[in-house]
Amino acid sequence: MTDAQWRQFVSYGTRTGKLSTVRADGGPHVTPIWFVLDGDELVFNTGKDSVKGRNLIRDGRVALCVDDDRPPYSFVVVRGRARVSEDLDEIRHWATRIGARYMGEERAEKFGARNGVPGELLVRVTIDRVLAERDVAD
C-alpha cells in the first residue's frame, strides 16, 4: 500500500488495533485498542496501572496490527516508540475524539468524560516503520 492507502486503511470505520508492548521479562503483551491517527502518530489512552500502561511507562517500544479479516485479507503493522502523558486536558480531548470514532459523535463526550480522568494515560506512538499488505489471498 502507498502511504495514503495504509493511513486510510487504519482509519477506516471502527477497526481496532492489536497493540503489542514489552513486558518486564521481555515477553510480548498483546491487547486490542481503540485509537486514532494524528499525522505521523497513533494516539490512544489506557489506564496507568494496566499491564500495557505499566509496560509503556517502562519501555515505549510497540507494534500495532490493524487487519481486515475478510477475504482477500489486508493488514498494516506499525512499529514505533510511545510516549505517555498524564495531562488531563489532553487525555480528555483525545478520549473524546477516540470515542467519536468508535461510538459515534453523539456518545463522544460521554467517553471523553469517562476516560479523561486521573489514572489514565494519553499515549502517542511515533511511527518508525510500516508494513502494509493488501489483498494477500489474491
From TrEMBL:
Cellular component per GO, a single term: cytosol
Domain Pyridoxamine 5'-phosphate oxidase N-terminal: start-end pairs: 4-130
Oxidoreductase as UniProt keyword: yes
Signal peptide positions (record): none
GO molecular function terms listed in the Swiss-Prot or TrEMBL record: coenzyme F420 binding; oxidoreductase activity, acting on the CH-CH group of donors
Highest taxon of the lineage: Bacteria
One Pfam family from the record: PNPOx_N
SUPFAM superfamilies associated with the record: FMN-binding split barrel (SSF50475)
Coiled coil segments of this chain: none
Keyword annotations of the record: Oxidoreductase
Record keyword Ion transport present: no
NCBIfam families the UniProt entry points to: Rv1155_F420
This protein's name: Pyridoxamine 5'-phosphate oxidase
Organism: Streptomyces azureus
